[in-house]
């Protein structure tokens, strides 16, 4: 089994010919748009399609040229940055930078830090890469020292070329609510090039696994995927699922328990727990001073991760608890999303300007489930808190004569 390497987003990783061609295309685009109309290169695709690896490899190529000796290259001596609005991923990228000669830890920044710094000094950047652009703020957030209206709007004003990753199925908050129409509206007037990635590199699974997850985020349940090397299981007991995850972690590492944000959690320094029958485990602890991201720390096998600690990361196996907000309605044969039971109230803060807020709440919750279900490379295990959904999943499992759990 190919166990996830700690520096999986390193430009030293092997790329497919298509990925190599895309890296070259991005570098050429950046070189060609350093003068004239502002250029924006948009990379889209589902979770696990290799967006971040391509981005970081292209960034490394550009920084190698910028810091190299070829004075004839338009990218020579350019000032370039890589931003991502995700504290755990910043840790990850900076660790990668330590292993490469032409990358610096200071090349990576949170968008608010970049915007405020460059506004204060009056500087502009040449090329700015934006990973997880769907996490950029779409309104002021004074608590986090962002006083302007939109992260991307500010980045566009401070950079000659922008290369960004966008996936509307990973939007998680009202204050960073994006859809394709909002993105297209902001990019109006720029010279824009789009690429949509479809090959799945994370989940070593057949297409029926991806189809099942896509249907779930549309509130539909398909028959369970066929038996295959990717281990897809339904559990009737959360503790049994945790025992299986712990066993895999001892053998392979990077196997974790995850949950929807349906259990109370407060950043007050105390431990907060998820309890489901025999299962009783604390939520992930907030340790911003930790050098390693949550997904890589060995001690986090004794915690339950949230969407905020695992978004953007790979795991070998993931045990996902579908909390009390995820219900099954037998009459309609549909999944029901109860937004009142979602404990991440900060996700719904700032509804001003949000049309159809209840619909967007459900969309955000389904996006979070999509992020959790698409973390593992080798196996996805599910447990549902809601008795009706648990029974329906068990019926699908028994009908498919899947592995006993």
UniProtKB/TrEMBL annotation:
Pfam families: SLFN-g3_helicase (PF09848)
Domain Schlafen group 3-like DNA/RNA helicase: 39-384
Name of the protein in question: DUF2075 domain-containing protein
Organism (species): Brytella acorum
Species lineage: Bacteria, Pseudomonadati, Pseudomonadota, Alphaproteobacteria, Acetobacterales
